[in-house]
Amino acid sequence: MKNILIALLLFAVFILGWLSETRLRKKMFTKLLSFERKGQKSKYFQLLEAPVAKICLSARSRELLKLDYFLTYGDIANVKKIVSKFIKKPSDLTKNNNLLIRLMRSYVLFLEKNDQESILKLENYLKVNCKTAEIEKEIDQLHRVYLEPDQNLLAELNNQLKVANEPQQKLIIYDRLIKASESLGLNKQAKEYLLEMKKVANKTIKLEEF
Predict the structure, then answer these.
(1) Neighbours of 143 (CB within 10 A)
(2) In sequence order, what DSSP letters do the residues of 126-180 get, joined into one string?
(3) Model-level pTM?
(4) pLDDT tens figures, 69-82
(5) Nearest 10 degrees: CA dihedral of 154, 106, 104, 73?
(6) 209 compared with 147, residue with greater pLDDT
(7) What is the widest separation between alpha-carbon atoms in the chain?
(8) If 0-12 CB within 10 Å is exposed, 13-18 middle and 19+ buried, where does residue 187 land?
(9) How far is the CA of 138 from the CAs of 84, 134, 145, 153, in angstroms?
(10) Which pLDDT score, from 0 to 100, does residue 24 have?
(11) How far apart are CA 112 and CA 175, in angstroms?
(12) CA-CA distance, 145 to 177, in Å (whole number)?
Protein backbone atom coordinates (compact mmCIF):
# COMPACT_ATOMS: atom_id res chain seq x y z
CA MET A 1 0.00 0.00 0.00
CA LYS A 2 2.80 2.35 0.98
CA ASN A 3 4.64 1.65 -2.27
CA ILE A 4 1.48 2.39 -4.28
CA LEU A 5 1.02 5.74 -2.50
CA ILE A 6 4.63 6.68 -3.17
CA ALA A 7 4.24 5.75 -6.83
CA LEU A 8 1.04 7.81 -7.11
CA LEU A 9 2.73 10.75 -5.41
CA LEU A 10 5.69 10.60 -7.78
CA PHE A 11 3.32 10.39 -10.74
CA ALA A 12 1.38 13.43 -9.48
CA VAL A 13 4.64 15.39 -9.08
CA PHE A 14 5.62 14.43 -12.62
CA ILE A 15 2.26 15.54 -14.06
CA LEU A 16 2.35 18.86 -12.18
CA GLY A 17 5.91 19.49 -13.35
CA TRP A 18 4.98 18.67 -16.93
CA LEU A 19 1.92 20.97 -16.85
CA SER A 20 3.98 23.76 -15.31
CA GLU A 21 6.67 23.44 -18.01
CA THR A 22 4.02 23.32 -20.73
CA ARG A 23 2.47 26.57 -19.46
CA LEU A 24 5.89 28.21 -19.24
CA ARG A 25 6.74 27.08 -22.78
CA LYS A 26 3.43 28.40 -24.15
CA LYS A 27 3.87 31.76 -22.41
CA MET A 28 7.45 32.02 -23.65
CA PHE A 29 6.50 31.30 -27.29
CA THR A 30 3.72 33.91 -27.09
CA LYS A 31 6.24 36.50 -25.92
CA LEU A 32 8.79 35.50 -28.56
CA LEU A 33 6.20 35.81 -31.31
CA SER A 34 5.17 39.24 -30.04
CA PHE A 35 8.79 40.45 -29.89
CA GLU A 36 9.43 39.09 -33.39
CA ARG A 37 6.38 40.79 -34.90
CA LYS A 38 7.32 44.11 -33.30
CA GLY A 39 10.96 43.81 -34.35
CA GLN A 40 12.11 43.94 -30.73
CA LYS A 41 15.36 42.14 -31.37
CA SER A 42 17.07 42.71 -28.01
CA LYS A 43 14.04 41.47 -26.04
CA TYR A 44 13.68 38.44 -28.34
CA PHE A 45 17.27 37.32 -27.87
CA GLN A 46 17.37 38.17 -24.18
CA LEU A 47 14.39 35.85 -23.63
CA LEU A 48 16.12 33.07 -25.59
CA GLU A 49 19.09 33.36 -23.24
CA ALA A 50 16.95 33.54 -20.09
CA PRO A 51 16.91 30.58 -17.66
CA VAL A 52 13.30 29.72 -18.57
CA ALA A 53 14.28 29.23 -22.22
CA LYS A 54 17.25 27.07 -21.28
CA ILE A 55 15.02 24.94 -19.07
CA CYS A 56 12.22 24.50 -21.60
CA LEU A 57 14.24 24.34 -24.83
CA SER A 58 17.32 22.52 -26.05
CA ALA A 59 20.28 24.51 -27.38
CA ARG A 60 19.36 23.31 -30.89
CA SER A 61 15.77 24.55 -30.55
CA ARG A 62 16.96 27.95 -29.37
CA GLU A 63 19.32 28.12 -32.34
CA LEU A 64 16.41 27.41 -34.68
CA LEU A 65 14.40 30.20 -33.06
CA LYS A 66 17.31 32.59 -33.57
CA LEU A 67 17.34 31.57 -37.22
CA ASP A 68 13.60 32.28 -37.42
CA TYR A 69 14.15 35.88 -36.36
CA PHE A 70 16.97 36.49 -38.82
CA LEU A 71 14.96 34.92 -41.65
CA THR A 72 11.94 37.11 -40.84
CA TYR A 73 14.06 40.24 -41.25
CA GLY A 74 16.25 39.01 -44.10
CA ASP A 75 19.47 39.26 -42.07
CA ILE A 76 21.52 37.18 -44.50
CA ALA A 77 24.83 37.52 -42.63
CA ASN A 78 23.45 35.95 -39.46
CA VAL A 79 21.38 33.41 -41.42
CA LYS A 80 24.59 32.24 -43.11
CA LYS A 81 26.36 31.89 -39.75
CA ILE A 82 23.65 29.70 -38.25
CA VAL A 83 23.03 27.66 -41.41
CA SER A 84 26.77 26.94 -41.69
CA LYS A 85 26.62 25.35 -38.21
CA PHE A 86 23.72 23.11 -39.14
CA ILE A 87 25.18 21.88 -42.43
CA LYS A 88 28.58 20.95 -41.02
CA LYS A 89 27.35 17.42 -40.40
CA PRO A 90 24.81 15.14 -42.12
CA SER A 91 21.21 15.04 -40.94
CA ASP A 92 18.28 12.96 -42.12
CA LEU A 93 16.02 15.85 -43.05
CA THR A 94 13.15 13.51 -43.90
CA LYS A 95 12.89 12.94 -40.13
CA ASN A 96 13.70 16.51 -39.09
CA ASN A 97 10.95 18.68 -40.50
CA ASN A 98 11.75 21.65 -38.24
CA LEU A 99 15.26 21.95 -39.62
CA LEU A 100 14.16 21.22 -43.20
CA ILE A 101 11.63 24.08 -43.19
CA ARG A 102 14.24 26.55 -41.91
CA LEU A 103 16.84 25.41 -44.42
CA MET A 104 14.37 25.77 -47.30
CA ARG A 105 13.52 29.29 -46.12
CA SER A 106 17.24 30.04 -45.95
CA TYR A 107 17.68 28.68 -49.47
CA VAL A 108 15.01 31.08 -50.78
CA LEU A 109 16.71 33.99 -49.00
CA PHE A 110 20.07 33.10 -50.57
CA LEU A 111 18.37 32.96 -53.98
CA GLU A 112 16.71 36.33 -53.43
CA LYS A 113 20.04 37.87 -52.44
CA ASN A 114 21.82 36.03 -55.30
CA ASP A 115 24.49 34.70 -52.92
CA GLN A 116 25.92 32.10 -55.27
CA GLU A 117 28.31 30.42 -52.83
CA SER A 118 25.63 29.99 -50.16
CA ILE A 119 23.10 28.81 -52.76
CA LEU A 120 25.33 26.02 -54.05
CA LYS A 121 26.44 24.84 -50.59
CA LEU A 122 22.92 24.65 -49.19
CA GLU A 123 21.47 23.23 -52.40
CA ASN A 124 23.97 20.39 -52.33
CA TYR A 125 23.34 19.74 -48.63
CA LEU A 126 19.58 19.60 -49.14
CA LYS A 127 19.85 17.20 -52.06
CA VAL A 128 22.22 14.87 -50.20
CA ASN A 129 20.35 14.88 -46.88
CA CYS A 130 16.74 14.95 -48.03
CA LYS A 131 16.30 12.44 -50.83
CA THR A 132 12.60 12.83 -51.46
CA ALA A 133 11.14 13.49 -54.90
CA GLU A 134 8.99 16.36 -53.59
CA ILE A 135 11.89 18.31 -52.08
CA GLU A 136 14.20 17.64 -55.02
CA LYS A 137 11.51 18.96 -57.37
CA GLU A 138 10.98 22.03 -55.19
CA ILE A 139 14.71 22.83 -55.10
CA ASP A 140 14.97 22.36 -58.87
CA GLN A 141 12.03 24.69 -59.53
CA LEU A 142 13.28 27.38 -57.16
CA HIS A 143 16.72 27.23 -58.78
CA ARG A 144 15.17 27.70 -62.21
CA VAL A 145 12.83 30.50 -61.09
CA TYR A 146 15.66 32.60 -59.69
CA LEU A 147 18.62 31.57 -61.83
CA GLU A 148 17.52 29.84 -65.07
CA PRO A 149 13.96 30.83 -66.05
CA ASP A 150 12.63 29.81 -69.47
CA GLN A 151 9.35 29.27 -71.32
CA ASN A 152 9.19 25.64 -70.20
CA LEU A 153 9.24 26.80 -66.58
CA LEU A 154 6.36 29.22 -67.23
CA ALA A 155 4.35 26.40 -68.81
CA GLU A 156 5.11 24.14 -65.83
CA LEU A 157 4.01 26.78 -63.32
CA ASN A 158 0.82 27.52 -65.25
CA ASN A 159 -0.04 23.82 -65.24
CA GLN A 160 0.47 23.73 -61.47
CA LEU A 161 -1.75 26.79 -61.14
CA LYS A 162 -4.61 25.02 -62.92
CA VAL A 163 -4.70 22.19 -60.38
CA ALA A 164 -3.86 24.23 -57.25
CA ASN A 165 -6.75 24.22 -54.77
CA GLU A 166 -5.42 26.15 -51.77
CA PRO A 167 -5.09 29.97 -51.94
CA GLN A 168 -1.62 29.75 -50.38
CA GLN A 169 -0.49 27.42 -53.16
CA LYS A 170 -1.79 29.82 -55.79
CA LEU A 171 -0.03 32.78 -54.18
CA ILE A 172 3.30 30.92 -54.20
CA ILE A 173 2.89 29.93 -57.86
CA TYR A 174 1.90 33.46 -58.90
CA ASP A 175 4.93 34.84 -57.05
CA ARG A 176 7.20 32.48 -59.00
CA LEU A 177 5.47 33.30 -62.28
CA ILE A 178 6.05 37.01 -61.64
CA LYS A 179 9.74 36.53 -60.85
CA ALA A 180 10.35 34.26 -63.84
CA SER A 181 8.43 36.54 -66.23
CA GLU A 182 10.33 39.63 -65.09
CA SER A 183 13.67 37.83 -65.52
CA LEU A 184 12.65 36.90 -69.08
CA GLY A 185 11.69 40.49 -69.85
CA LEU A 186 7.97 39.66 -70.05
CA ASN A 187 6.91 42.67 -68.00
CA LYS A 188 3.35 42.86 -69.35
CA GLN A 189 2.81 39.21 -68.46
CA ALA A 190 4.33 39.77 -65.03
CA LYS A 191 1.86 42.60 -64.36
CA GLU A 192 -1.05 40.36 -65.34
CA TYR A 193 0.15 37.69 -62.91
CA LEU A 194 0.52 40.35 -60.22
CA LEU A 195 -3.11 41.47 -60.69
CA GLU A 196 -4.33 37.87 -60.41
CA MET A 197 -2.17 37.36 -57.35
CA LYS A 198 -3.71 40.42 -55.67
CA LYS A 199 -7.21 39.06 -56.36
CA VAL A 200 -6.37 35.77 -54.66
CA ALA A 201 -4.71 37.60 -51.75
CA ASN A 202 -7.74 39.85 -51.23
CA LYS A 203 -10.11 36.88 -51.26
CA THR A 204 -7.89 35.07 -48.77
CA ILE A 205 -7.88 38.05 -46.37
CA LYS A 206 -11.70 38.33 -46.55
CA LEU A 207 -12.08 34.61 -45.83
CA GLU A 208 -9.75 34.87 -42.82
CA GLU A 209 -11.71 37.85 -41.49
CA PHE A 210 -14.96 35.92 -41.90
Answers:
(1) 15
(2) HHHH---HHHHHHHHHHHHHHH---HHHHHHHHHHHHH--SHHHHHHHHHHHHHH
(3) 0.83
(4) 999 999 999 999 99
(5) -80
(6) 147
(7) 82
(8) exposed
(9) 21, 6, 10, 12
(10) 77
(11) 12
(12) 8
